[in-house]
Amino acid sequence: MSLSRTFEAGNIWLTVEYRHFGGDEGYDIRVYSRINGNPRQILRFDCFRYQPHYHYDPLGRDERVELAGYGMSDAILWTLKQLTYHLPEMLTQAGYPDVAAGVQPEAVREAVAKLEEHLTAVLGRS
Questions:
Q1: What's the 3-state SS for 35-74?
Q2: For the chain, what is the domain count?
């Protein structure tokens, strides 16, 4: 089963892949939208084993927020909750209020459910 997937959700899409970075590793969940017709990464959640964190506008101002006290599994659960319940606020915080205004909550919930199902399958747990 592939560890890299994309999940469409209205005006945004989510990607997930497993990656190794600087002695750490884990699942990388990204939020994209089209800005001026071009794909733009707006949020990135690095659900790493040792130093999980997330980024607002990782290709722009790259504001990084640590998830101190979280391991990889906890960071994944935290990320799924944020995507489900707080995505518009996070998109606005990242500097994309127009994208936030266009979020379709039901489409996001469906995409996050599919993302969670995928992660459950690859992690081998329920």
A1: ECCEEEEEEEEEEECCCCEEEECCCCCCEEEECCCCCHHH
A2: 1
CA distance 34 to 42: 10
Q: State the DSSP H helix or E strand holding residue 9, giving kind and residue range, or none if neither.
A: strand 5-9
- To 5 degrees, how large is the angle CA 80–CA 78–CA 6? 30
Q: Which two tokens stand for residue 14?
A: 């989510």
37-75 burial: b if 16+ Cβ within 10 Å, else e? eeebbbbbbbbbeebbbbbbbbeeeeeeeebeebebbeb
For 89-106, how does the pLDDT look when each residue is reduced to its tens digit (9 = 90+)?
999 999 999 999 999 999
List the one residue out of 35, 9, 60, 34 whose CA is nearest residue 44: 60
Residues spanned by the domain of 59: 5-123
State pTM to two decimals: 0.91
